[in-house]
């Protein structure tokens, strides 16, 4: 159950359906704690999403509710996927959107991995 103030987990969200294998994804990694797959609408030459297997709405939920093993396993997977994608030498960005101001669209915690070109400023200057 997410902490007070956060929405309940929606079992029908698109990443829950990808986890259950109900809709296809181009997976690049899977282990006990996480799966990773290419974003359907890539914003960089490499744009991969890493998601925990557990049902967590956002980073706020995951950091509060997940076990130590899930947290460690998930973040190890993030680093491992970036390495396996060949992003370490030239660098990459790991990003998570949380809630309305973060622009989160899919309510299953995920980390975006972007790479393959210089990525510019962290946040658009316009705030758009
Ligand atoms: P958010 O804005 O929630 O941080 O990012 C959600 C991401 O999920 C977006 O980059 C979007 O392109 C991606 N996405 C949405 N639906 C699908 C889907 O069905 N398959 C895949 N692979 N990615 C998706």
TrEMBL record:
Catalytic residue list: 110 (tele-amp-histidine intermediate)
Q: Which CDD domains match?
A: PKCI_related (cd01276)
Name one molecular function that GO assigns to this entry.
Answer: catalytic activity
In which organism is this protein found? Roseomonas indoligenes
Would you tell me the protein name for this molecule?
A: Histidine triad nucleotide-binding protein
Q: Annotated motif Histidine triad motif: location in the chain?
A: 108-112
Q: Which InterPro entries match?
A: Histidine_triad_CS (IPR019808), Histidine_triad_HIT (IPR001310), HIT-like (IPR011146), HIT-like_sf (IPR036265)
Please indicate which superkingdom the organism of origin belongs to.
Bacteria
Instruction: Report domain HIT positions.
Output: 14-124
């Amino acid at each position: 159950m997410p902490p007070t103030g956060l929405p309940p987990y929606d079992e029908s969200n698109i990443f829950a359906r990808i986890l259950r294998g109900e809709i296809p994804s181009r997976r690049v990694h899977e282990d006990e704690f996480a799966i990773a797959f290419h974003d359907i609408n890539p914003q960089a030459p490499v744009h991969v999403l890493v998601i925990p297997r557990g049902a967590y709405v956002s980073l706020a939920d995951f950091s509060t509710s997940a076990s130590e093993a899930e947290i460690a396993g998930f973040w190890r997977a993030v680093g491992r996927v970036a390495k396996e994608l060949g992003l370490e030498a030239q660098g990459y960005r790991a990003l998570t959107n949380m809630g309305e101001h973060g622009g989160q669209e899919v309510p299953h915690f995920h980390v975006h991995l972007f790479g393959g070109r210089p990525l510019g400023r962290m946040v658009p200057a316009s705030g758009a």
